[in-house]
Amino acid sequence: MMSPKRIVLSHRLMTTVLLALLWALSLSGIFFRHEIISSLSAAGVLVFLTAAYPVLRRITFAIVTTLLVAAVALAMHYERLDLLWLGLERAVMFAAFLPTLALLRAAVSKDPRLERYRERLERVSPETRPLWIVSGSFVLASVLSVGSSAIFSSTLRDDAPEVERVAQARANVCGASLALIWSPFFVALAVVSDFLPEVSLLSLVGSGMFVSVLGQILATRIYARSTPIKGNLETIAALSGFAMPVVATTILVVVARATTGLSTIQTMLVILPVLCVAYLAFRGRARTDRARRDVWDAMGRMHDDVAAVSAAMIFGVVLSGTPWMEGLEIVAFLAGFPAAAIVGACILLMALLGFAGVQPLVAGTICLIVLTGGSFGLTDLATGISVLAGWSASSMLSVSSLLVRVTAAQHGVRPEQLVVGRNMVFFAAFLPLVVMVVMAINGFA
Fold first, then answer.
1. For 30, how many CA atoms within 13 A lie in the half-sphere containing its CB?
2. pLDDT tens digit sequence for 194-247
C-alpha cells in the first residue's frame, strides 16, 4: 500500500505530464486549427482538473469547486451546457501560459546582469535600499514575477532586524504589483486582453505603463527617504542592461500581436519559447539543462494555479455567454452613478476582496464581465486598465496572494506585515490617481 506522501508525488507527476501535453496541444491548436485538437484540448483540461483535485490546497480546492459548481448551475439554468465545453477549450491556452512563464523565468533568472545588480544593491545602505527595491522590482518582476523576491532577499544580512526585513519586503511587493499593470508577462494582462479582444495590446501596455510609472513615482515618496528622481535614475542605470531586453521583447510581442492576427496569449505562447530557447542555446548546454530541470520542477508545483485559472476561464465563458445580468436591479442602480465612481468602486472592491482572501483572478473575471455587460459609460480600454489596477491592489493587499506569501517567506516575516502600514497608505494615495488617469483615458478613447 502506497504511503500518503508517495500518493501525492504520483499525482503531481501525473499532473506535470498532463500539463506538458496541454502545452503541446495549445501550440498545435495555434498552428493547426482543427476541431479534433480543440476537443482533445478540452478533454485534456477536464482530465487535468480531475487528476489535480486530490492535491489542491484547501483554499484552491474551495475556489475551484465554487467556480465550477456556479458555472454548471448557470449553464444548466440557461440551457447552455455547450458553454462549459467552450470554456474548457479556452482554458487550455491559459494552462499552457503558466509553464511558458516558468520557462521565461528559468531562462533569465541566472542572467549575469542580475547578479551584478544584486551585488550593487548589497552596497546600498539599508535606509536607501527600499527605494532601489521598489524601482528594481518594477523592472525585474515584469519578467520574473514573484521570482524577483529572491534577488532582493539575498541582500539581507542574517542578523538584519525585523524592521529592515519588513521594509524591503513591502517595497518589493509594491514594485512587483505595479509591474502587473503593464507587463504582458503576467496572467493578469493576458486575461484582460482575452476578454477585451477589440483593445490593442499596445493600448493596454502603453496605458498600463503610464499608470504604473505614476504609481512607482508615488511609491518612492512613500517607501524611501531619498530624492525619488535621483534614486530612480540610479536604479534605472543599474538595471539598464536587463531592462533593454525586456523592452525589446515587449515590443516584439506587441508588434506580433498587431500583425499576425493571433490573440495576446497565443502570441506569447509562440514567441516566448522561441526567444528563451535561443537565449539558452547561447548560454550553453549546462545552462539549458538547468533551465529544463527548473521548468519541470515548476510544472510539478503549479497544479493549484493551473486549476484556478482553468476554473476561472470556464466560469467566465459561462458568465459572458448567458443573460444573467438581465433584470438585475443592482446593475440598473449602478448605471446611474458617474463613470469615475464605478472605476473607483471596481478597484476598491477588488482590493477588499483580495484582503479577504479572494483571488484577484476570480474578482477580475467578474468585474470584467460586469463592466463590459452594463451601460456604465466606460470604454473597453478604460475597463481593462481599471481591472488591471484592481488586480494589482488585490495582489499587494492579500495575505493569500502568491506574491505576498513568497516575499514574506523569503524575507523571514509574516504575510500580515506586508499588507498593512505603508502598503495601505500607498493604495489610499494611488486609488484617486488611477481614477483620474482612467477617466482621462476614457475621454480620449
1. 21
2. 888 888 889 999 999 999 999 988 888 876 655 455 555 666 666 666 777 788
161: DSSP letter: -
Asked if residues 101 and 141 have their Cβ atoms less than 8 Å apart, the reply is no
314/370 Cα distance (integer angstroms): 16
Distance CA 441, CA 208 (A): 11
For residue 60, how many C-alpha atoms fall within 13 Å in the half-sphere facing its CB? 19
d(CA 108, CA 145): 12
Q: Are 187 and 440 in contact (CB under 8 A)?
A: no
Express each pLDDT in 294-331 by its tens digit: 888 888 888 888 888 899 889 988 988 888 776 667 77
Q: C-alpha grid cell for residue 225?
A: 527617504
Work out the end-to-end distance of the chain between its first and last CA atoms, rounded to an integer number of angstroms. Answer: 63
For the stretch 344-357, pLDDT in tens is 999 999 999 888 87
The answer to whether 364 and 350 are in contact (CB under 8 A) is yes
Nearest to 287 by CA among 100, 109, 152: 109
Cα–Cα distance for residue pair 279/391, rounded to 1 Å: 31
DSSP letter at 155 equals T
Question: What are the residue ranges spanned by the domains of the chain?
Answer: 4-444
Query: Cell numbers at residue 84, please?
Result: 462549459
Give, as one character, the DSSP assignment of residue 395.
H
Q: What nine digits make up the cell of 423?
A: 502598503
Contact 167, 270 (CB under 8 A): no
Q: Give the DSSP letter string of 275-296.
A: HHHHHHHHH-HHHHHHHHHHHH
pTM of structure? 0.84
Cell numbers for 255, please give them.
508588434
Would you state the pLDDT for residue 423? 84
Measure the CA–CA gap between 121 and 126, rounded to whole angstroms. 10
HEC profile of 17-54:
HHHHHHHHHHHHHHHCCCHHHHHHHHHHHHHHHHHHHH
Closest CA to 167 of 156, 181, 159: 156
Average pLDDT over residues 5-18: 69
Per DSSP, the residues of 165-233 read: HHHHHHHHHHHHHHHHHH-TTSHHHHHHHHH-TTS-HHHHHHHHHHHHHHHHHHHHHHH-SS-HHHHHH
Q: How many residues does the chain have?
A: 445
